[in-house]
Design goal:
The protein is built from ten helices and three strands, in the order H-E-H-H-E-E-H-H-H-H-H-H-H. With 219 residues, the chain is mostly helical. It has a three-stranded antiparallel β-sheet. Helix 2 crosses helix 3 and helix 4 packs parallel to helix 6.
Amino acid sequence: LFSLLKYLLAAKGHRVPDFQIQDDLWPDSDGDCATNAFRVALHRLRKLLGDPEAILRRSGKVSLNDRKCWTDVWAFEDIAGEAESLPKGSESAPQARNLAQRLLQLYQGPFLPGEEAFWAIGTRQTVSHRFVRIIEAFTGMIAQAGDNHTAVDILNRSIAAEPFEETLYFLLMKTLHRMGEPYKAIRLYERYQKNLSTRFGDSPSERITSLYQKLIQGR
């Protein structure tokens, strides 16, 4: 039941063929068993949502009904679309600040954390990478306008939501260095290095390590 809901959320409003849902959610069941399991799950989910029209099924394809449902993934896509249409440069800094606040109020972390099905991982990676790209663009515009303090705040909040996205640490380190606070940037790297090692047994990339070494050497 909840796997079907998660699956439809991961589809981000796209219409998915019945057979694909059955193959992805019930891969070990034969055709008839998978079809029955799908129909039961769909009926129960519609009942749970309290509206039979909350989930559309037309021409053998299924999707959430955007007229009946709201999801944070759809809201993220809307903000992302606005963000990506902004002209690049410091003149867009006011809009970037506003959109960044809206985005950070909405984005509380990776999509469906803990769900390891391939269809969830794919959406999680796509959304996370888009989030990082948008934050990079926003903070670039804001820093160009001379507002490094707001850029730092946005990057700190972004790291709280995505604590293992290295690009965010790299951008924050560069911004702190630009503000004349290299020691904060050094401590930030060391915190990231420790967390990465503890969680994944991994090390930071050569790019961010090179920046750290330059800061240590006072360059």
